[in-house]
């Protein structure tokens, strides 16, 4: 399990570094990043991933808006689908430059049904 978490952190870090390089070439205003974690604050693996993600981005270049789906404590299908719909509305309103998700439920219930045919242009 630990190796999966480290692989996830490595993947996110590589993705963010690539994104950061492209942002350097654009104007100097802060870029908006929406980060969605499948679980909740206080869940140790999620806390580690979230902290690692946020810590590695310069605060003067990025505005990070973090959301937690809380699907570990609320595993019902109805709750998860409603929470994903709420988050989708928030993402559309924010219009981020980048959407980053962490763990399976964020991918399964937020990304797969809503962003299959899109790149983050909302």
What distinguishing features does this structure have?
single chain; 122 residues; alpha/beta; Rossmann fold; three-stranded parallel β-sheet; 3 strands
Please characterize this protein's 3D structure.
The chain is an alpha/beta fold and 122 residues long. The chain has one domain (2-114): Rossmann fold, CATH 3.40.50. Helix content is 52%, strand content 16%. The protein has 4 helices and 3 strands; from the N terminus they run H-E-H-E-H-E-H. A 3-stranded parallel β-sheet has the order 2-1-3, sandwiched between helices. Helix 1 runs parallel beside helix 2 (44-55) and helix 3 (77-94) crosses helix 4 (104-114). The longest helix is centred in the first third of the chain and has 23 residues, at 2-24. The chain is globular, with a radius of gyration of 14 Å.
